[in-house]
Amino acid sequence: MNQRQWQSHVRAYEKSAQSRRTYTRKHNLNYCQFLYWYRKLTEQTSVSDTPGFVPVDIKPPTATTGNLGVLEFSNGIKLVINSSVLLAQIPGLMEL
Q1: CA–CA distance, 13 with 35 (Å, rounded to integer)
Q2: Residue 34: phi, psi to the nearest 5?
Q3: 31 touches 20 (CB < 8 A)
Q4: Distance between CA 60 and CA 90 in Å, rounded?
Q5: Torsion region of 6: left, alpha or beta (phi above 0 gives left; psi -120 to 50 gives alpha)
Q6: Which of 35, 46, 57, 88 has the most crowded CB, counting CB atoms within 10 A?
Q7: pLDDT digits (tens, 9 = 90+) for 11-48
């Protein structure tokens, strides 16, 4: 059975008032395959309806004299701090 046929069954099932097991028995479908395609097709639909990006409000940085500090982690990642607000929060974050 191809994807279009499974789409048709998923749509028909959603319109029916039957349980998945009842629907698959009535239509001689493999229950596990139906579950696979049901999840695959319904997740596909819901993901495409959700935007891939979330809007973020970015405010221009306040004037600074450059980097206020750099945290370098053992894995090589560096966190460049150029905000006095972030710099003030670092001690509290280190306690977590």
Answers
A1: 11
A2: -60, -45
A3: yes
A4: 21
A5: alpha
A6: 35
A7: 999 999 899 999 999 999 999 999 999 998 887 655 44
